[in-house]
């Protein structure tokens, strides 16, 4: 039997619900989840410091999946971006980023693209880095002589992937289809 005002698939705990009531009296926990699942990641990351319950909520795999689905439904490309490797002649590569909106604008006027250099795990000006693949906001990068990493640029977390037995050096190219790998297994 489902209590009134409760969604049958709700994964909230009594502690989360009581904290929701304290912070937002008469505000259903499910509605809070629905609202937060539509907030951009950068704004959502501010909730990490509000309370352990909020951190638990936004770290919940079900919430993360809901957030990703909502994000992909948006027609606004302002939150989506491109991450790419820049290979200057006779120099080490580095990663840059631009929004999809800026990239579309640059198609008409190439000098209008707003491209910025980004920080990435183990950034080292003396080692090259390559984008190997991406899926659902996760990016696989290979860093010269350091290996491969699964990286979430939105929350700035990364995991080193198991050694593939290949040393990454300049001129080397690896392509990985992240769409066929159960990513949750790698992260755990």
Automatic annotation (TrEMBL):
Entries under SUPFAM superfamilies matching the protein: F-box domain
Top-rank taxon, per record: Eukaryota
Signal peptide: none
Domain F-box, residue spans: 21-67
PANTHER family in alphabetical order: BNACNNG10540D PROTEIN, F-BOX PROTEIN CPR30-LIKE
Name under which the protein is recorded: F-box domain-containing protein
Source organism of this protein record: Cinchona calisaya
């Amino acid at each position: 039997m489902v209590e009134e005002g409760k969604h049958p698939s709700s994964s909230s705990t009594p502690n989360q619900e009581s904290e929701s009531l304290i912070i937002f009296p008469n505000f259903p926990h499910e509605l809070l989840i629905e609202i937060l699942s539509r907030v951009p990641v950068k704004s959502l990351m501010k909730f990490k410091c509000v309370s352990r319950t909020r951190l638990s909520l936004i770290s919940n795999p079900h919430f993360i999946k809901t957030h990703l689905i909502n994000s992909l439904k948006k027609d606004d490309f302002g939150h989506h971006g491109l991450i790419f490797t820049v290979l200057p002649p006779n120099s080490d590569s580095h990663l840059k980023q631009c929004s999809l909106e800026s990239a579309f604008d640059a198609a008409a006027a190439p000098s209008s693209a707003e491209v910025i250099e980004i920080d990435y795990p183990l950034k080292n000006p003396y080692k090259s880095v390559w984008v190997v693949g991406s899926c659902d906001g996760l990016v696989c990068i290979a860093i010269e002589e350091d290996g491969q990493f699964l990286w979430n640029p939105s929350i700035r977390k990364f995991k080193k992937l198991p050694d593939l037995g290949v040393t990454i050096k300049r001129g080397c190219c690896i392509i990985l289809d992240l769409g066929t790998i159960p990513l949750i297994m790698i992260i755990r």
